[in-house]
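Why predict the complex rather than its parts? Because the way molecules touch one another can change local conformation, and only a joint prediction can capture that. The input here totals 674 residues.
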Amino acid sequence: MTKPYRDNLPISADGFMDQFMRLKRGSVSRRHFLGVTGLGLATAVFGRFPGAGQRAYAAGDLGTQMSIATWPNYHDPATFENFKAATGVAVEVNVFGSNEEMLAKMQAGATGWSLFVPTNYTISTYSQLGLIDELDLSQVPNFDPATQSARFTSEGKVDGKTYALPKNWGTTGFCVNTAKLKTPMQSWKDFFEVAQTEADGRAMVHDYQLTTIGSALVSLGFSFNSIKPEELAKAEELLIKVKPHLFAINSDYQPSMRSTDAWLTMCWTNDGAQLNRDMPELAYILGKDGGEIWTDFYAIPKSAPNKPAGYALLNYLMDPQNAVKEHIANGAPTTDSRVIALLPAEITSNKIVYPDEASLTPLEFGAAVTLTDPGRAELMARFKSA
Amino acid sequence: MELTPKAKKTMVTAALIGPAAIWLFVFMVLPFFAILVFSVGERAPAGGYQPAFTFDQFANLGARAAAFVNTLTLAPIGAIACLLIAYPLAYYLAVKVDPRRRLLLVSLVVVPFWTSMLVRTYSWMYLLGARGIPHVLELIGIENVRLINTPGAVLLGIVYGYLPLMILPIFVSLEKLDRRLLEASADLGAKPISTFFNITLPLSLPGVMTGVALVTILLLGEYLIPQLLGGGKVFFIGNALVDLFLQSRNWPLGSAIAVTLVIVVVAVLLISMRIAWRFAGTRQIDLV
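Output of the joint prediction:
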């Protein structure tokens, strides 16, 4: 008599379900689960066949999991699926509302992130505080400094050492629902005037000191980055006067603009492009009087629990073939000429994504000092609680 | 070895309260101690905390006075609004309803807790937003009504979210009510309304005060509802704390505000218990 086939299985059906429920409850690790159920062995065997779990983007042990900290609506979700298919590493995505919040999490201790997306003006502070390491560019062969536009990428270097590689650049303008608002607007001065009149109760500003205070400063004729107390006092006066007329103070403005609850909002390039793509009446305008131009970078925290996977994802994203999909999905302009060559003409000719050089001239990059200046932080708190 | 009865008793006590005591010590007392230490420190130049011994942060509490005022007005208003809606419903459930259907109806009060508060608050965002109720109003000719991001929307979210916490304690206190007292009152010639005010209401006060205290205390730390339904324009202490820790990274001031908030909560508890004792003439209302 032959033995029942079940005796040859590494685990009984009941045992399998028991282990599976323990895994779901989190009482055992995935590694333990794969071990005792034999699935790990199966994966390893199948993994030897071509097409199942190649590791084209890095050598070495990448593990099975990593986290990235980034911005809302900022990636093509397929990117992480494809990365998992290529490397076996699942990417957990954490979404943030401001650079301050990212920095606060890093200052509080280990974040669990193996890659994150800080904006240009924060990188020198991260490196001074010892929260990020110099990048080992030998692990990112897909990055080519020769094809990068130095205008946007210079702040990735501190004292000649590369701490961060560019993701994309962009601008901070405003988005107007032209079906609801008829006043022509060209400047931040117009923005704050219309917010108190025609767009009463329908305008949004960011929950973010850099852009909200910066744009108010610009509308008064001051620098976007000012920390002069008398100029900040004027900006505060304006913001507090505007506040009763606002719809919301919130950096997640896409839902409200799409539902037409809000008709006017401060807006980043990529959101402006996404909104305009889906609702053509939503126009994106750069202030003639100034505003912000920025670059978001990829950096690896010193405390990263899975640096090999962080580098692997970074290298994957620096591959123009992968990066181009990200740009098509999120609508932000690229710093890499190899990617521009691959982008479809309707994106490279889109004036929201690639504006005329003249409209960029009055814009300023955010300054590092605004991140840590207590005066701006307190102003924002007084504005919100007023 | 034979344990003495006294040792046995000590061990039983330790086994009963040990787990809760350890939990509270590790996750409540120790963090609170850390917050106390932070509150006498200084903000580091790049944000965060650096050691110091100064009461500057407490002197600077006035910088968040607006948040304290907002919270200390909206929390009691929210609690009273909850009470006004919850009391008649709890009375109906405890006194008037057919006992065979009581369990079902009381369970329905708890059902909303099966879904996350966040999901329910988001649902309100869509209901109150332009594609929700205002859209229906447009169909009958009322244009451009804005409901979302108003103090009214915040109050609605508060009442919706905390109503069950008010209904349940009042229901319990009314259900325990000795019906013979009501019969005696009627026998002695009291009208129903005077029976309610002289007997039912005073005897249900412990439930009312428990409900009011529960809702008020939770509201003092509320953060989500003003953020989501108030559009970030209605600023509670909870919102001030989030900003101080996550945006301006002034941890010492945030800690000083947190310490002050704890003191306010304890004061609210003590005062509401005193009031309840006085009115109910009983000491059965122990919340702390």
